Amino acid sequence: MGFIRRSVLLLAAWTLLSGCSLSIDGEQYQSLSPKLDIRTFFDGQVKAWGIVQNRSGEVVQRFVVDIDGTREGNTLTLDETFEYFMGDGPEKRIWVITYNEDGSFTGEAGDIMGKASGRSYGNAFNFQYEMDLPVGDTSYEVAFNDWFWAFDQETLMNRAYIQKFGIVMAEVTIFMQRQEKSVL
């Protein structure tokens, strides 16, 4: 009787945990338009508005990001400046993203652990990386599964899933829009 009860409990726990994990198949976006080329989209000024929701769906952070992107050869540099209206976080982040010969991307930023890896899928782009995420007086090593989808050539929607042990702990939703170049 003890073995059966433990087996049922383990199966129930596994089912609950697998429901909190995430698996998006980028291949389903390969044929969708408009095609998303992050090197083109982020080359210039981009404004972004976002929220972070905890596991309960409660909004715990609201922010605006000004992104100044520059492209030189196979390298895209994103200089991000954050302003928070709720919660707090980094004020600045600079991404250096490299396009590789095999069609993949690698990225680095000061608060990212190791290198990020990315790949385009038609109108979608997926970026995965790990971060030592500060929360209050502590920090947590988490994994980001960051998805971008193009609405048109000027507009993106971004959804980032923050995971710990493969379980989604929080979600970030960001709306991004290219800005007109200023004329001096």
TrEMBL record:
Pfam families: DUF3833. It comes from the Bacteria. Keywords: Signal. Residues 1-23 form the signal peptide. This is DUF3833 domain-containing protein. It comes from Alteromonas sediminis. The lineage of its organism: Bacteria, Pseudomonadati, Pseudomonadota, Gammaproteobacteria, Alteromonadales.
